[in-house]
Amino acid sequence: MHRLARQVAKISIILLLGGFLGATLVRFAPGFGVDEEDLDHRLNQQSMQALRESRASESLGAFYFHYLTRILHGDLGTSRTLQQPVRKLLAERIPETLKSVALGLTLGWTLGLALAIAAVMSRNWCVDLFGSLLAGALLCLPAAALAILFVIARAPGQLVLGLIVFPKIFRYARNLLAHSAALPHVLTARAKGVGSVRVFLWHILPVSAPQLLALAGVSVSMAFAAAIPVEALCDLPGIGQLAWKAALGRDLELLVTLTMIVTAVTLVANSASDLAGSSLRTREA
Amino acid sequence: MKWARIAAIVLLAVISIACLGAELFAPASYAHQFRDVPDAAPSRQHVLGTDALGRDRFSRVLYGTRVSLLLAPSAALLSSLLAAFIGGTAGFIGGWLERCVMAATDLFLSLPWLFLLITVRALLPLNVAPMTSVMITFALLGCLGWAAAARVVCADARSLAQSDFVLLARASGNGGLRLLWRHIFPNLKTVLYAQFWISIPVFILTEANLGILGLGVAEPLPSWGSLLRELESFSSFSAQPWQFVPLVLLIVVVSCFHLALSREEFSV
Q: Where do the domains of chain B lie, and which CATH numbers do they carry?
């Protein structure tokens, strides 16, 4: 319970600081303070000047306080480029991204873990080489180029996220499982004639589980980061595509909100994996 | 694996020499437009054909490789120096400074890298000169990429600060700055060297991602990102296979960087 409270406090502080960083970016952006009223021809030069000064006079602290109050009241503002409330845009696009990320993570983890287990348990150099070459090749490809190749091949774009996550999962899981498989108690179990499946499930997996859970948290953040180029190029209407459109349109307020949401998701995923890992360690001890 | 490492280093050297001498090897400037032959197939004049604006693709690949190969190490150097200064000082001094720096790295590592990068990139004017856009892109990569390296450097500096030789130097009357400059920083060289080499392929790939999304180096200056952007208008793999040369070159160079690193440096 104490650990959970600490994690919640840590997430809140990081989000507050991240929000402050975001608000600072928005406040000092070159386009800050420019509004539709500037295009109103009925207003004379003095009125426009007065309006601009009133908008620009707000200090950073006051600006952040208003920004935070607005967010806490559920008002995320209006997208300048898409002319729609940010809340509505997010409600439409978050499910699409969650679906892509979930599919990508499932694919990446299934492929990566299966190949890592096969390489370690079979002790066959062909499987290890195949996995290493595949992971190595995918690590050398930018996510955006992979997305373009999928578009050209007319393959579903959601699979790209799986291929981006796969090499990291395979490399880390393979090294971890190989290290655990070489521990003395595993060698003793093998020498006593315990079967491969039992050795893996009872002696290798429990040792590696906390680190694999930590990797699960990190892989969520990797998948979300890769969602920008993949969704933008494969025309998937998620928050990655929204972030790209916002960046091209210099819609900083929307970009900062998106960054904060993805940061929150990343932090929650990392904290959940941390908590799960530490509870596993406690149970083992 | 020693032969593979040597082959990778030789290949990197050959590619670097070819792109550094782009003026000698390229048949035309990267911006010169042969208006009578747009979208041309490979020929004796244009080894890799021309793009939609009639620019020689081989020249653009050479100049683009030069931009990415010169500036990714510069960005890696900047991030390694920042990591050395911030992480090294925090690890050596310890206490509240170390806790603050670690909290800052936590914050930086929690913010999604690509989201943060495009947010900061969107802050800056989009209609900048090509050379300025190159500097902005790689300076951003360098400035935002220090956090992970700083964490490693900080841990290393902390253990060095508690080591016997530093204790002895302190007992001999060496002050904090001298200890840091003469005893801590020189011993951080190995970890900084590894961080520098690991960062180069990461920055090359990130620039390529930004370039493909139209947020990287501005036209007409080529970079791998802007060269790969051409593939967006592609309809099938077999139509103009020579357009894939920048992608193949990118994969070869990044693979060479991965192979050139020793296994211990690169392992997760």
A: 2-267 (1.10.3720.10)
